[in-house]
């Protein structure tokens, strides 16, 4: 979450560089150039996107097979179940053990490549039908042996909408004919998905949205799930498929004869080995490593980053802490990759929790909040440009959203008050009825943040910012994966501010950046909710429904206007347009996955 699609929409929409990159929640970590640049890339690309493509091509052409890679991770994946995961780490592991219809390969990051699909999606002239043909010869890992067939894709989509599974990004697929508008009891058939034969899947749309659907087919929902195997797990609430998944990638989580994932120790480790049924002739990836071991309890990021920099065969799962990041970028040089993430980090304000139910209070907080202080907590200029609105640089709709300057006519949030302006904040506090120009109420705000840096430091800065404005704040620090799955995604917990939210493109279209996080009709009150602000503005929803059907420059203008509407609603505080810096040991030939800007296990190798 993520959680993308790159040039697939270009021909039809006429404006997009359809770059699939995972969305998802804190679907990533980051790093970037200083405020004032126009691209969000660092001034030098020596260790950026160009270097990553070169390393990926070298892995394909002359990479040496063998060896075991260890990754140190501060927390666990959200889910291994491809129908449930919506967190960048889940996408990273899922990409190694599973295959989607389309994926972004590290050596060709600007075009989504067919993975399970045998060629590009076929889109009808009325933009209401998408047809995908499947490759032959793709088999499931043991204990299954059969080939993937079209019904496995159909079932993957159908189970996604079951309350037992709880797919977390239904908005992209709700316009498939027959798709449920709310979670179903059990897995129900979707009439708009048909399988004329074992190698063909046809999606029928109720609206001319086939291009957007085609773009979203890089997401984990398109990972095949064998109906006859998974249905017994999906019959339970919640589904137990998460620890019994059928895998199709070059790798597999170690399992037993029953298919149980004995290599997955929740909160401790994930042991990944080669899939003996993987056929390299059906896959573009070199898959050079023999094994990957992931420690998911390496909670001290300072220690982990030093172990990786000075060790062997190690990688870090995300950004190192601020001090280490500065040292790394200025002194170490060759042991990191720094890539634009295609997303934003922000502090959502829950509009259903007092006093954030008052628009003027939210505007006051946005005005007085020091965005630069929050950025410094993550690593300063190396982690991204300071955000002035939602859509990031190098992204469709960025210029239509005001570019780097944002919206100068919005006095409470613009490029001039990145360090906060308490005079403007006082204006809005007074408009809310607080004569002192600060908050005077008695509520104690619940903030939930990660218990490891840089997320911990970021949440502590946010708490200090609220306290200086008169708020009482109770900061609860929990493991990174729990920030979302157990707290911020659960409306019943009444989290006033998520102390470390991030959102990264599901595909390179402004709809994927704004709709999941701010569309009121997509609020999931039973859990798995992505709209942390609980923003439910009918004007915003109506504008999104209209913009979803637009094409070309008009589409970008409409989504740019929606960006402004969300800022005017003061739904949250975007403070970084994110960049990810990932770290490796000297003997690791590290390659990043362009979809999520994290390590790509299927391209990375050892010296």
Your description of this structure?
- With 607 residues, this protein is of the alpha+beta class.
- It contains 16 helices and 23 strands.
- The chain has a domain at 344-578: Dipeptide-binding Protein, Domain 3 (Dipeptide-binding Protein, domain 3), CATH 3.10.105.
- It has helices at 10-13, 49-62, 88-97, 150-160, 210-215, 227-234, 301-310, 322-332, 359-368, 371-378, 422-431, 455-468, 480-488, 510-518, 538-547, 552-568, and strands at 68-72, 102-105, 108-114, 122-123, 129-133, 193-197, 200-204, 251-253, 264-265, 269-274, 291-295, 314-316, 336-348, 384-385, 444-450, 472-478, 497-498, 501-504, 572-583, 588-589, 592-593, 598-599, 605-606.
- The strands form seven sheets. Strands 1, 8, 9, 10, 11 and 12 form a six-stranded mixed β-sheet that branches. Strands 4-5-7-6 form a four-stranded antiparallel β-sheet. Strands 14-19-13-18 form a four-stranded antiparallel β-sheet, with helices on both faces.
- Helix 9 runs antiparallel to helix 11 (422-431) and helix 10 packs antiparallel against helix 12 (455-468).
- It starts with 9 loop residues before the first helix and ends with a strand.
Structural class: alpha+beta
Radius of gyration of CA atoms, rounded to a whole number: 23 Å
Give the tally of β-strands: 23
Q: What is the CATH architecture descriptor of one domain?
A: Roll
- The span between the termini is 32 Å
Helix content: 25-40%
CATH superfamily of one domain: Dipeptide-binding Protein, Domain 3
> Per CATH, what is the topology of one domain?
Dipeptide-binding Protein, domain 3
User: Mind telling me the CATH class of one domain?
Assistant: Alpha Beta
Question: In one word, what is the shape?
Answer: globular
- Average pLDDT confidence is 90
Provide the low-confidence segments as ranges: 1-44
Number of helices: 16
Largest sheet, strands/sense/barrel:
6 strands, mixed
The percent range for strand residues is: 15-25%
